[in-house]
Amino acid sequence: MKKRNLKINDGEKAQLDNKPLKIGRITWKSWANAVLPVGDIIVFEREIAHTLNNHKKELETLGLSPLDFIKFVVQNFNEIRSGNQIDSFLLIVKNPDISNTAIVELKKDKKSKFYKIKSAHPMNNMALNKKTLLCANVR
Hints:
Helix content is about 25%, strand content about 35%. It has about 140 residues and is an alpha+beta fold. It has one domain (about 20-135). Helix 1 (about 45-60) packs across helix 2. The longest helix has 18 residues, at about 45-60.
């Protein structure tokens, strides 16, 4: 089988999911530690490509690359809600004056002490309110 050299910038899936990037950390001093155990937050090329493929128009409107969008959310989230699966969480940048929010979905890796980013995208507040609020940091 011939291997292709795939690029994130093209929005194609990264081959073998082999390039993780550490983009944040839940620390023991963090307000988020009330819900999430300490651990690094990593993203693989495949999730960056997934974000680009599925949310390109929204990201272009914001003027952000998928990686910049993910970093923004991880560095600025002010809510944690339950995710779509067991052991998954939504990190949310929520502003009550704006109808859309920025979210990153994390999945805790049970074998390691890290959180893997599954998805990242803007989301409508109405849809988000259906998810259980686990913790908030009012700034």
